[in-house]
Amino acid sequence: MKKLFNAALPVVLLCAFQPVSAQTGISGRVTDESGEGLIGVAVIVETDNARTGVVTDENGIFYIDVPEDTDLEFNYMGFKSVILPAKDNMLVVMEEDRSLLEESVVVGYGSLKKKDILGSVSTVRHQELQNRISGNMVESMRGLVSGVKITSSGTPGSNANIQIRGIGSLSGGTSPLFIIDGSYGGSEVGLSVEDIESIQILKDASSAAIYGSRAANGVVIITTKKGTTGELKVKFDGSAQMYWLPKYDLMDAETYKYYDDLAYQEAMMQGVPGVNDLQNHLSGDSDFLGAMLKTGIIQNYNVSMSGGTETLNFYTSLNYKKDDGAMMNTGHEQFGFRVNTGGKKGIFEYGQHLFFSKTKTDNLMGNPWASAIQIPPTIPIYDDSNPGGFGYGKVDGANSTAVNPVAMESLYHSNNPQQYLYADIYGQINLWENHLNAKLNVSYKNYFGETNTLRKKGNWTMSQGDDSAFISYATAAHDMILVENTYNFNYDIKGHSINAVAGFSFNTMHEEYKSQTKLDPLVVGDKYITSFDSATGTQTCTGSYIEYALISYFGRINYSYGDRYLIQLTARRDGTSRLPKEHRWGNFGSVSLGWRISNEPWFDVNWIDDLKLRANYGTLGNTNIGPWDYQSVINTAPRAIMNGDTKVVGMTQSNITNMDLVWEKKTSANVGVDFLALRKRLSASVEYYYSKSKDLLFNLPILMTTGNEGGAPMVNAASLRNTGIELEIGWNDIVGDFGYSVNANFSTVSNKVLSLGYGQTVYYTYTSRSDIGQPLGMWYLYKKLGIFQSEEDVLAHVNSKGQVIQPDARPGDIIYDDYNDDGQITSEDRQIVGSPWPKLEAGLNIALSWKNLDLSINGYGRFGHLVYNAARATAMDFTSNQNNFADFVPWTQSNPSTENPRIIYGDTRNSRGDQDRWLEDGSFFRIGDITLGYTLPRKWLRAVKFEEIRLSVTGRNLLTFTGYSGLDPEFADGGVFTIGYDGCSFPNPRSVQFAVSFTF
Amino acid sequence: MAMFSGLLLGSSSCSDSWLDIQNENGLSSGNFWKTEEDMQAGLNAVYAMFYRQGTWTRNLMNQLDGMADDGVLYSSWTELNEWTKFIYTDYNFAEVNTKIWKEHWTAVNRANQVLDHIDDPNVTFSDENDRKDIKAQALWFRSWYYFYMTVLWDNIPIVLKTSSASDAPEGVTADKVFTQIESDLLKAIPDLPLERETEKAKPTRGAAYGLLARVYAQHHKWEEAAECLEWIIYGEGKNLYELERNFGDNFNNHTENNIESLYEIQFSLCNDVGWDATDNYLGADAQLGTQIEISRSPKGMGWQIVESNPWVKEYFLREKTLDGKNDPRLYYTLWYQDAEADFPEFPNHLIYGKTWEQLGYSGSDNDRIYIKKYSTDVSPVYYWNDNNFRAIRLSDMLLLYAECVNEVNHGPDAKAIECLNRVRSRAGLPDIADSKYYDGAAITSDYDAFKEHLKIERGLELAFEGMRWIDLKRWGFDASTLEDIRLRDADYNNFVIGKHERLPIPQTDVDNNPNLDQNPNY
Q1: B19 Cα to chain A: minimum distance (Å)
Q2: CB atoms within 10 A of CB A64
Q3: A304 CB-near residues (< 8 Å, 6+ apart)
Q4: Total tally of structural domains belonging to chain A
Q5: Same domain for A118 and A91?
Q6: Is the dihedral of CA B191, B194, B196, B200 positive or negative?
């Protein structure tokens, strides 16, 4: 078996190598530790002008021509590389590389060897991140691991969303818990990707249970780099990226006028009241998006210095990133500074991380994508006759209240400077020959964010009154303190291995929000003075604070016998201030079992390197809700007039509160097989999971008849079941100079509602319906059957009793399905028309290297789900003078479309939002990043004393396979009940990046 | 091992008290409703519900006037227009249906909170009459909001207690809602004073009788309605209310809280937000003005949402005053091209500082007729103004009394005719018997003729005061009335009997409440 797999490929590839000029011919044999010959080992010789090589034959024998005094390099997958001086009849023994299994994986309050991991943990290492174009740590993980869905928006400075194994909880987003170097953080802190050493993603209860109540959405543990022993190492990374945003292909003014006139003629023919004349069209021919989009440029620089001795190490880095934005009024600037140090003396050890970041983001004020669809292209972008100087609707010329997005972004500015300070320090005492470690970790996070807003005088829409100019200044300040005290114990004796951790944690957060606004800032010429003192109008201010705390006790024991039988027990007890006193404490835990079959003495399949079966069961919790959702307060804002200008203060409870909230708990079971074979070239892992989330906390909208205001109250809103299969499979090999790897991951998630809050059996939104026993948020819409082509068609559309269902319809109107067969179209005719949930998600990563060149390709996709294209729905078929898409061709007598209806100004019968006409297949596969890199040959570098210089070019999102007609099949969705709702989301850009990195 | 368990135990002493964190951003609701001042503040929060887009800031008025045959919408917002033309596509249409529905229920819930606590014996009042007064006001407000909900949707739930999140109240018929309102108002009446010295926003006994009369009439309980109206016209109200000599003073922001008013919604510009912001439930600085004016502004200025159907002007012009002039109510009600010629006796014909010619209209735009009622003398028109809305005024009560008596007696009596004539004579018109245009003899003697004539009188006197839809609904829609209305308002071509007498209930509330059905045929 072994022989068969080793032989074929490398020979073919080595044919490409150039023959070495006549030198000494030598021979040798390469074996493993047991003396068995290794087939296909790459034997490489590096000369001044080339790297060439041969491979060993089926007995491990090789022949090669080499110059005098040369070293030979032996590379073989699954074995440690060897470099030896060349000599004839040399015997080379290669040692098996166990690092892949022995590698330690951070699992929360400690680390375990990869081989001992029983839960579902995926790891992303810095090598995999280095080619990632995104400066955002969450986005950079995209497609690298199974069961992790990352959705991003292309807005500069925005954070990508991450979802692990479907919807674990409904509230507080679906974002997992982020731990950065032992402290709580998130994608928002602006961590530089270059500083990341590794990312571990804990996906199941077994691995995440140590984080108890914070882990229902999974845990992402990020470890930043630290200095390694050796002399000072300086690394510089620089990149420049150009990027472009996609743009709707909308009608130009000429086409728009043609169809708008058609819509008016149709309205007049039909007798729509008030429609007597065509629009006397304005003379503009505007491309609003075109005027707002440009090539975006992102510059990213990172310098790091690291080094250390056996007892002391440091890593420090400086990062600067600037994104000029491809859309008007967007942009992001970020500056980051990090110092990590660590040291040891005797039994004492310490470590410290300090990270400071300062960012500034320009905020987009409206949604220019939606506005661009709504505004007629006949409106000129600029119009001096309007207050503010921008064009907008005119009753006779373009009777539209659409927002001119250029005007809004020009007259309304907001930016958001933010600062993060992130610091933690730990001290540790190592006792009993390092079998027992006691650690105290204290971390502090401080955030200060400001929002500066300036509203200039002027209008962006026809219906606007004489809005005042104003300036406003808002701040948010957060302080988080985390104190953790942990004890680690590990002991190995006669095949028994114990690894245990126990600890205590206290976490508190205080957040302060203040905002003030003053009308009528001083204007000097064209310039607005943004000083509050110089403004003359009314001044208002608001402010509030929140505070919460969490106390936790936790422990974990890993025990293994003979490297074959593994068991892990985890327990955690959490107390939270966010739940009422009587329900405040929750217990969580997990049990995991593993069996390393490959280590059984009877196991005799020698091509399998490692085979492990594992199963676990556990409970996680969530209280990622507002700090005081169970406390009700009186709203003191209401004001009323008693007479003249006599104002009185009103007080009332506006927001209804559920005071009986309990812990949300997620119980899951997980079975998996890990498999490593063929000299560790083939790796695979298959998992099945089943999880039940009970008492999910969510602001489930309540009936309007309650009179509730200020958002739906928090409630234990639903119980859900998620099941899925995850498969990760990879092949990697090095053949002489050529190294390659192909890794693919596939996952499925399916969910089912088990119960709903307030005793409901079904929950509806405008476009979706969630029934007990069905997946969450199924599309629930009127169904379009076709287009009436004639009066006969109208009369032929009857129910089972022969009643004409749409008697008022005319040819060109949509045929709606009379689902309940009552002879008319009513709200009862909505029906479930599809699912927003992908049937399959997949990622593919290919890496190739040859000599000094490397190429990596990352692709990912989601398949089999329906997406609501709100951009199409927004266009609304010319019912109110909106623009439409260039490919839109309505039904007319001469164009009997079966797809699009006729267009009628002032009549929304065909353009209703709650019909399945706006659903599309959302499947896509996207080549995310393609990177081609070149590492300069070492001997060139020796001359300039550089360790490494690398140049690379990366293309991103250059290729997407999809049938979806929206801007981007990957969009920030509309929340858990409308998961597939693409509400004119800010699209992801396409980009090309050039990067240089050097180390000396 | 012993060491770390010891440390763990040691640290566990920090425990529970660290988790007791109280929200002090607002008064905890457990500490409220303890004093007289709390009750008054709770009631004030009900008053605050006037200043919402879905109540009296704008949308309720626009919807009522737009649906009725006097007003019509040709705005640039198609869905807004459709909602007044009996074309309902999205039952959750946020601007109209959801907003009005939601904010009316918020008002009801605020009133219910007061009513749930007001009788708490632990709360002492310096004067027990104040407790009664507050309770009566809360009952009046709950009735007020239920009345308008019935006018729009008919079949709604009745909620009489502070809401909790899991409530799924059952829908009942309009008849049951009216019965509930009647019982509430009857309870309120004796505890409301006849007059309010300064706090004009607070309903008086007259305001309660007026509202109750309106409810009874809508409920076709003519006798009971007539009794209430008699209190206003001939009883104690006789000394309190009088028709203003000048019709226009009822819509002018300089002549507020006048003797014709039984109830006014008080608007003010003292909170100046600077832009269009009302529904900010946490905004202590939210606007307290009205947008009725900007909603009606003529083309080219403001929002131009609601305008007038031509018949209102034509009907006014049919009859001259005793001194041979045009009905001055037309001058105060509408703006149109020939107004200056029709009313030479009035010097001011400016529309926000411009003459009709200066508006620069061409073609059919010169035929459009705009609503002047409730306009002010600002220029240019602004988002907000402080013009009080005269919610119940005496001339409405007089005409309603005439109608009720006609129903009770199946014909007009002397008092009914007198009340009608009082309204006419204030406008300078002759007594109905002497009318040169109408058949006075028939009108003063015949049930049907009198009733039909009242429809015209009310239509003119009360045009664009949010009354016409209520009137049309009271009079009912059958094939022949519909035919008649269609002559005045083409919107009614879409009207289907048995369906469009009421709006569809917001679908999300129907969907998510198993006890509430959608209105028939929606």
Answers
A1: 4
A2: 21
A3: A194, A195, A225, A234, A235, A236, A315, A316, A317, A318
A4: 3
A5: no
A6: positive
What pTM does this model have?
0.86
Is the same domain home to A21 and A62?
yes
Q: Which domain holds residue A38?
A: 2-97
Kindly state whether residues A51 and A108 are assigned to the same domain: no
| Same-domain status, A214 and A116 | yes
Based on the fold, state whether residues A214 and A115 are members of the same structural domain. Answer: yes
Complex ipTM: 0.94
Domain B35-191+486-522 has CATH 1.25.40.390: yes
Task: Indicate which CATH number applies to the domain containing A135.
Answer: 2.170.130.10
Q: How far is the C-alpha of B90 from the C-alpha of B94, rounded, in Å? A: 9
What is the pLDDT confidence band of residue A228, given thresholds at 50, 70 and 90? confident
Boundary of a domain, candidates A177, A210, A227: A227
Chosen for mutation from B44, B52, B142, B158 (greatest number of chain A CBs closer than 10 Å) is B44
- Residues sharing a CB contact under 8 Å with residue A854, sequence separation 6 or more, in sequence order: A847, A848, A931, A932, A933, A934, A935
How far is the C-alpha of B356 from the C-alpha of B350, rounded, in Å? Answer: 7
Q: What is the pLDDT of residues B384-428, one digit of tens each?
A: 999 999 999 999 999 999 999 999 999 999 999 999 999 999 999
Interchain CB distance below 8 Å, A710 and B48:
no
* pLDDT tens readout for residues A30-89: 988 888 888 878 888 876 666 777 888 888 899 888 887 788 888 887 788 888 888 888
Same-domain pairing of A88 and A196: no
Residue A107 and residue A220 in one domain:
yes
**In a shared domain, residues A218 and A117:** yes
| Of A399, A646, A704, Cβ closest to residue B506 | A704
Predicted local confidence at residue A710, as pLDDT: 87
Is some CB atom of chain A closer than 8 A to the CB atom of B72?
yes
pLDDT at B8: 42
Q: How far apart are the first and last CA of chain B?
A: 71
Q: A303, A320 in Cβ contact below 8 A? A: no
Tokens 């964010």 belong to residue: A449
Interface test with B, best of A639, A646, A978 (most B CBs within 10 A): A639
Q: Is residue A502 part of a domain?
A: no
Which residues of chain A make contact with B32, given a CB cutoff of 8 A?
634, 651, 653
Q: Write out residues in chain B with pLDDT < 50, as ranges.
A: 1-13
Do the domain assignments include residue A152? Answer: yes
Q: Is residue A959 part of a domain?
A: yes
Is A831 part of a structural domain of the chain? no
Higher pLDDT, A216 or A779: A779
Looking at the DSSP assignment, which residues form a beta bridge with residue A960? A926
Type of residue found at A443: S
Taking all residues of chain A, what is their mean pLDDT, rounded to a whole number?
88
In terms of pLDDT, which residue wins out, A461 or A204? Answer: A461
Tokens (6 digits) for A944: 């300039």
Here the CATH number for the domain that contains residue A28 is 2.60.40.1120
What is the secondary structure of B146-159 as a DSSP string?
A: HHHHHHHHSS-B--
Task: Determine contact: B274 vs chain A, CB below 8 A.
Answer: yes
E strands, A562-606, where?
Answer: 565-576, 585-596
**pLDDT over 70 at A584, yes or no:** yes
Q: Contact at 8 Å (CB) between B307 and B74?
A: yes
pLDDT value, residue B7: 42
Name the percent of chain A lying above pLDDT 70. 93
For the stretch A151-207, pLDDT in tens is 666 677 776 777 776 665 666 566 788 888 878 876 666 788 888 888 888 888 788
**CB interface of B with A, residues 375-404, below 8 Å:** 380-383
Burial category of A424 from C-beta neighbours within 10 Å (exposed 0-12, middle 13-18, buried 19 and up): buried
* End position of a domain, from candidates A97, A123, A158: A97
CB atoms within 10 A of CB B126: 8
